[in-house]
């Protein structure tokens, strides 16, 4: 592995004038937190983010995601009416106040979960999608699907986050889930921004979205709150300003006021303390890699696409950048082959690894380039005296007719001529 620490600071300084490499650390009283810039794929904050904790109603996001999947593949339709079981109707807490005489449209149940945080609505959807028709069976299905999606710190005992031993999610998993909802189901995502759902008017006092940062003018448009005694107050949120979108998770706060204040504060921090800057356009040469057995000794390493980094706006420190590749790279090489990574480190943020590709084709070398390479290897191995080693002459193929050597006197005559 060649680790070419090329000190690309000069290049980056030219591309990124006026920016620095460190941001003020965000301190939060939340038990766990995770902040993600979805636009650039940058994790801005991670506090106890992989610790499994009670998620309360934020776990309903998994029920919603799996319902979106079922609608997308035709197992459910948005206007289909579902029955309400005694089990679903028996849930207390946040509720649509359903009873067993109701048959409720899937679209209404989605709003009942998203806007009203209905435990009963979540259970109705779960029973409809469960392999065995029970909420417990659906919870097993949820856990399996979560693990398939990479959310390995999640385990579900029910569909809605009702307190139960072993029902846990991590802040990171909740953020990954929110990212999937926004990316995979953009037609459903606008429901998360709805601030009111009166259903059929049966409980007028229970019609408002519990998300405290909607309507604050900061670009917030989702996703879900949660609260139990064990879980504390939590919020999975997202906001978009301009072309940037951030996703954040807060878990284990001690009051609704703290949840509202931390939610707004973390959105403002993410958008005001970081800015996007272009590293380079597609094809920008960043460095060169050594080539083995090629018709040329090096190949340019270039950005494969227009590349943007999210960088802090306040610091006195420089960026640290290096190119890393396994080399020398053996020919033949095709233009566009991924050969290296540009590793950019910013104080207080995870390193970013960007692919670098071959700028041009490099054909495999013919006879003389191979001889030169072999000579370099021998000299490197044996030192300068390697120059006195016998001349490298390729062996003739077996059975081939070889020219007779020139007579000694002919060689002498040629030298004297």
Task: Give an account of the 3D structure.
With 417 residues, the protein is α+β, with helices and mostly antiparallel strands. The chain folds into two domains: 1-24 and 274-388, D-Ala-D-Ala carboxypeptidase, C-terminal domain (Peptidoglycan synthesis regulatory factor (PBP3), Domain 2); 32-272, Beta-lactamase (3-Layer(aba) Sandwich). Helices cover 27% and strands 24% of the residues. The protein has ten helices and 16 strands. It has helices spanning 9-15, 60-72, 86-89, 106-114, 119-129, 135-148, 171-184, 256-272, 367-382, 408-416; strands spanning 2-4, 32-37, 42-47, 81-83, 103-105, 220-228, 232-241, 244-253, 274-280, 285-292, 298-302, 307-312, 320-325, 329-330, 338-345, 352-358. A seven-stranded mixed sheet has the order 1-13-15-16-11-10-14, covered by helices on one side. It has a five-stranded antiparallel sheet with strand order 3-2-8-7-6, with helices on both faces. It has a two-stranded antiparallel ribbon with strand order 4-5. Helix 4 packs across helix 5 (119-129). The longest helix is centred in the middle third of the chain and has 17 residues, at 256-272. Pfam families: PBP5_C, Peptidase_S11.
CATH top level of the largest domain is Alpha Beta
Largest sheet: 7 strands, mixed
- The domain count comes to 2
What's the end-to-end separation, in Å?
53 Å
Structural class: alpha+beta
Poorly predicted residue ranges = 4-22, 386-417
| Strand order in the largest sheet | 1-13-15-16-11-10-14
Mean pLDDT: 86
Please name the CATH architecture of the largest domain: 3-Layer(aba) Sandwich
CATH fold descriptor of the largest domain: Beta-lactamase
SSE run: EHEEHEHEHHHHEEEHEEEEEEEEHH
How many helical stretches? 10
Within CATH, the superfamily of the largest domain carries the name: DD-peptidase/beta-lactamase superfamily
Radius of gyration: 31 Å
How much of the sequence lies in strands comes to 15-25%
Q: Compute the number of strand runs.
A: 16
Helix content: 25-40%
Shape: elongated
Family: Belongs to the peptidase S11 family.
Binding site for substrate: 224
Catalytic activity: Preferential cleavage: (Ac)2-L-Lys-D-Ala-|-D-Ala. Also transpeptidation of peptidyl-alanyl moieties that are N-acyl substituents of D-alanine
Active site: 57 (acyl-ester intermediate), 60 (proton acceptor), 117
């Amino acid at each position: 592995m060649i680790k070419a620490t090329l000190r690309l600071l000069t290049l980056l300084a030219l591309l990124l004038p006026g920016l620095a490499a460190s941001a003020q650390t965000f301190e939060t009283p939340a038990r766990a937190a995770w902040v993600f810039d979805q636009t650039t794929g940058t994790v801005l904050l991670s506090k106890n983010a992989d610790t499994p904790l009670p998620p309360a109603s934020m776990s309903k996001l998994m029920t919603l995601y799996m319902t979106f999947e079922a609608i997308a593949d035709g197992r459910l339709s948005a206007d289909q009416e579902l029955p309400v079981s005694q089990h679903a109707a028996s849930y207390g807490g946040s509720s649509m106040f359903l009873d067993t005489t109701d048959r409720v449209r899937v679209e209404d149940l989605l709003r009942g979960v998203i806007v009203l945080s209905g435990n009963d609505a979540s259970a109705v959807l779960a029973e409809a999608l469960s392999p065995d028709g029970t909420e417990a069976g659906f919870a097993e299905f949820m856990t399996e699907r979560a693990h398939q999606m990479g959310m390995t710190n999640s385990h579900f005992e029910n569909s809605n986050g009702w307190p139960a031993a072993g029902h846990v999610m991590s802040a990171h998993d909740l953020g990954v889930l929110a990212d999937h909802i926004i990316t995979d189901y953009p037609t459903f995502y606008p429901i998360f921004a709805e601030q009111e759902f009166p259903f059929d008017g049966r409980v007028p006092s229970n019609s408002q979205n519990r998300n405290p940062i909607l309507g604050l003018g900061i670009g917030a448009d989702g996703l879900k709150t949660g609260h139990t005694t064990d879980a504390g107050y939590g919020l999975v949120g997202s906001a978009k300003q301009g072309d940037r979108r951030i996703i954040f998770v807060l878990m284990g706060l001690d009051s609704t006021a703290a949840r509202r204040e931390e939610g707004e504060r973390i959105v403002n921090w993410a958008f005001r303390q970081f800015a996007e800057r272009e590293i380079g356009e597609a094809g920008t040469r960043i460095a060169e890699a050594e080539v083995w057995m090629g018709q040329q000794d090096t190949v340019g390493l270039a950005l494969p696409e227009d590349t943007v980094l999210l960088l802090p706006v306040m610091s006195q420190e420089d960026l640290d950048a290096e190119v890393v590749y396994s080399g020398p790279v053996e020919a033949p090489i095709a233009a566009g082959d991924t050969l290296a990574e540009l590793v950019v480190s910013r104080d207080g943020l995870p390193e970013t690894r960007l692919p670098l590709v071959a700028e041009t084709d490099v054909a495999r070398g013919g006879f003389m380039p191979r001889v030169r390479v072999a000579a370099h290897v021998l000299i490197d191995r044996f030192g300068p005296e390697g120059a006195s080693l016998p001349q490298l002459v390729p062996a003739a193929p077996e059975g081939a007719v070889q020219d007779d050597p020139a007579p000694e006197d002919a060689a002498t005559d040629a030298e004297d001529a």
